Amino acid sequence: MTTVQSPPAPPTAIRPKVVARTGLYTVLAANAAIVTWFAVQAGFASNALVVIGRFAGLYAALLMAFQLLLVARLPWLDRRIGMDRLTNWHRWTGFGLLWTLVGHVVFIAFGYAESSSMNPVSQLVDLAETVEGVFRAVVAMGLILVIGGASARWARRRLAYETWHFIHLYAYVAVVLAFTHQVAAGTTFTTSSAATAYWYALWAVALGSVLLGRVVLPLWRNWRHQLRVEAVVHEADNVVSVYITGRDLDRMPARAGQFFLWRFLTRDRWWQANPFSLSAAPDGTRLRLTAKAAGDGSAGLRHLAPGTRVFAEGPYGAFTAMHRTRPESVLIAGGVGVTPIRALLEEIHGHAVVIYRVAGERDAVLYDELRELALAKGAELHLVTGPSVPDRLAPRELAALVPDIAQRDVFLCGPPPMMNAVLGTLRELDVPRTQIHFERFSLAG
Questions:
Q1: In terms of CB atoms within 10 Å, which of 64, 82, 215, 417 comes out highest?
Q2: Crossing angle of helices 48-70/193-211, nearest 10°?
Q3: Residue 441: what pLDDT?
Q4: Which residues pair with 259 in a beta bridge?
Q5: For residue 141, with 0-12 CB atoms within 10 Å meaning exposed, 13-18 middle and 19 or more buried, which class applies?
Q6: d(Cα 422, Cα 120) in Å, to the nearest integer?
Q7: pTM of the full predicted structure?
């Protein structure tokens, strides 16, 4: 594929990830301060447990809004942080939200029970029956508990992605119920018009971000580009490349190293969204993905007919040359993880060393393309073959291939065990963390 390349951007000392991460932390901290100020202005109840419970509820509402921002898939954040890291933050924020909500319910129930003759459980039931909005909050709490249980590692491993995703859709129901509870029973809503305006604005931004990133942008881009399958090429026994064309692809903001969530609109596949990386840098006329048959979704690609309509969400991911900090680089691929590495080699500037780790030469998908690209760009290419033990990318072996690796950016993509091993090797070789770029391709919320 002929690539339309923009002029190389020099490595920058101001890292995009740091800018985005700092921005998110600042926004969260600033809103926490605002929430605290409004709560103090509203005054304190005479019961300390109720006061603690109210603060826990306010911070839980703030975390819930922050959760929506993390899963909104906003391009500015995604390109700088990456969907995998946003997903990880979403997960840990979710557990923080869960325990904050539990604290809100427990402290409120015990606090009100202390002032009455009821036990905490009876007090909670009484509040749900007599105070507007409390029953909705109890339902929202139950939904959050179910979602939290489905997010635990032991449960996540046993659930199909579609099932897990369907359960998580109830989070939006919980958000609406929690918000209506806050409107009906929240002290700041009833005592301060400024606080009321603040909370309405906060929820509008959070829900608006989800609507923009998850609905409006995908629909608009697919209407604009009208994607279709152009051709399906068999690269190996169990590997195919799918070429996709459409309108105005030169205006699609995709970069080498990114991925899309692809839906092929056939009768039996339209409901499946599969994440596949671009295996060639976008050239303004077509996109290409290359996938190994690892499940029903990827195995069915070989049967796609030219002309099949495609609905693509994305591009997603921060695994791009945008994050370079050094003029020279090392690209390390394992197995089918070569797809974004091959695309990056096409786009990246400066001297590059490419290391392709596979079990045997017949497993080296796209190797001929890599060899031609390396020759054209003056890059070094090393094909490392053999079983996983002994580790052929251990510190001594990797240092022999790239003696100056600590002075280069390192882009890494491959199976999780291989990536974990290489990341350990890079730490032993004292490669600075700021120069190590990798992404674990996962779906956010």
A1: 82
A2: 30
A3: 61
A4: 277, 316
A5: buried
A6: 53
A7: 0.85
In angstroms, the CA 314 to CA 311 distance is 10
Tell me if 226-316 shares its fold with 321-438: no
What is the separation, in whole angstroms, between the first and last Cα of the chain? Answer: 34
Q: At residue 443, does pLDDT exceed 70?
A: no
From 90, 30, 93, 34, select the one nearest 60 (Cα to Cα). Answer: 93
Contacts of 367 (CB under 8 A, 6+ apart): 356, 361, 383
DSSP state, residue 215: I
Residue 289 φ then ψ, to 5°: -120, 150
Alpha-carbon distance 317 to 344, whole Å?
13
The CATH class of 321-438 is alpha beta
Q: How far apart (Å, rounded) are the C-alpha atoms in residues 242 and 334?
A: 20
DSSP state letters, 165-214: HHHHHHHHHHHHHHHHHHHHH-HHHHH-HHHHHHHHHHHHHHHHHHHIII
φ/ψ of residue 286, rounded to 5: -155, 160
81 burial type by CB count under 10 A (0-12 exposed, 13-18 middle, 19+ buried): buried
CB neighbour class for 338 (10 Å; exposed up to 12, middle 13-18, buried from 19) = buried
Domains of the chain, by residue range, sit at 16-213, 226-316, 321-438
Residue 321 DSSP symbol: G
Question: Are 188 and 38 spatial neighbours (Cβ–Cβ below 8 Å)?
Answer: yes
**Residue 3: predicted pLDDT:** 44
- In tens, the pLDDT along 264-310 reads 999 888 888 889 999 999 999 999 999 987 655 566 788 899 999 99
What's the pLDDT band for 91 if we cut at 50, 70, 90? confident
Name the CATH superfamily for 226-316.
Answer: Translation factors (2.40.30.10)
pLDDT band at 159 (very low <50, low <70, confident <90, very high): confident
- Cβ-count burial 205-232 (b if 16+ within 10 Å, e if not): ebbebbeebbeebbeebbeebebbbbeb
How confident is the model over 337-368, as pLDDT tens digits? 999 999 999 999 999 999 999 999 888 999 99
Q: How many CB atoms lie within 10 A of CB 278?
A: 27
Cα within 13 Å of Cα(426), Cβ side:
25
Question: pLDDT per residue over 363-378, tens digit each?
Answer: 899 999 999 999 999 9
Query: Position 36: which residue type?
Result: T
Instruction: Let me know: does 258 contact 441? Beta carbons within 8 Å.
Output: no
